[in-house]
Amino acid sequence: MTFAVIANPEKYSVKDPFIQLLQWSDDHGVQILFNADLQELYSGQQHAAAQPVANEKKAIDQADIIIALGGDGTMLYTARLMKNIQKPILGINSGRLGFMAYTQKENLEQAMQFLIEDNYRIDKRYLLEAEDDDGHIYHALNEFLFAKKDSTSMVNVQAEYDDMFINNYWSDGLIVASPTGSTAYNLSSDGPIVMPDSNVMVLTPINPHTLTTRPLVLSSNKALKVRVEQQDHEVLFSYDGQIKQIDSYPFEVKIKRSNFTVDLIELPTQNYFDTLRRKLMWGMDSRNGS
């Protein structure tokens, strides 16, 4: 069995779990493909399992399973690389929160054993798709964001759903999140948590001027139109943290569910609610640490 590892070598937190993965793979006769840049993480060591290649695309093409080692940022980057490739992805969290990187680095060896035994489920996550007036298409696994840049002023963003006007939002920004992205920026902006397999998207204003302006959960099978007019200050549009410069106004995109999906691996010891309880510390009494 062959695995491809996607990781950021500049993040020190990936070094120890990457070396542990190579050592485990040496003992179990599997190959680990990775961008040659990661060789610096085990400099001076010899690993039979290590197969450096020219770039991450080659590693992915030759692998059976993809391992994203890092945090949710690495998972989003891996999803962008694999937009047209249906191969399962295991997220190993070597960072902090990590809602998509289910597996903690402490459980790495157990996770690898499950993989070689083919003992896992596929958690299929869909992307959102935004198309602008010029026909450019942007994809997001987490969210699209319309936000102010370097300004204390609010932005004004108009939203329309299925040809019905929703609102003219005066706020610090507007989030359009997928179910996967409901536990990201949406959550920190008081948006709802949505089950990953729900066919919806969440429209969440950031610090709205009117307190009664609340998040909306909309079917993702119909188009949400978001429009930004010329304003006194610059407005940013981003998709999973990738910024698109708005060159002319009005700027308008139509957002709906994409046909692209990514296949996340869920191990027998994992489920979505366990992840929520652990990451958000539900039911934990901070007074006694239980």
List key phrases describing it:
6-stranded antiparallel beta sheet, Tumour Suppressor Smad4, alpha/beta, 18 strands, 290 residues, Rossmann fold
What does this structure look like?
By secondary structure, the protein is an alpha/beta fold. The protein has two domains: 2-120 and 267-280, 3-Layer(aba) Sandwich (Rossmann fold); 127-258, Tumour Suppressor Smad4. Helix content is 18%, strand content 38%. It has six helices and 18 strands. The protein has helices spanning 15-28, 56-62, 72-81, 108-116, 185-188, 272-280, and strands at 2-7, 31-35, 50-53, 65-70, 88-93, 103-104, 121-132, 137-140, 143-148, 155-161, 164-171, 173-177, 200-206, 216-219, 224-228, 235-239, 242-244, 251-266. The strands form two sheets. Strands 1, 2, 3, 4, 5, 6, 7, 8, 10, 11, 15 and 18 form a twelve-stranded mixed beta sheet that branches. A hairpin with a 2-residue loop joins strand 16 and strand 17. The longest helix has 14 residues, at 15-28. It is elongated. It catalyses: NAD(+) + ATP = ADP + NADP(+) + H(+). The active site is at 72 (proton acceptor).
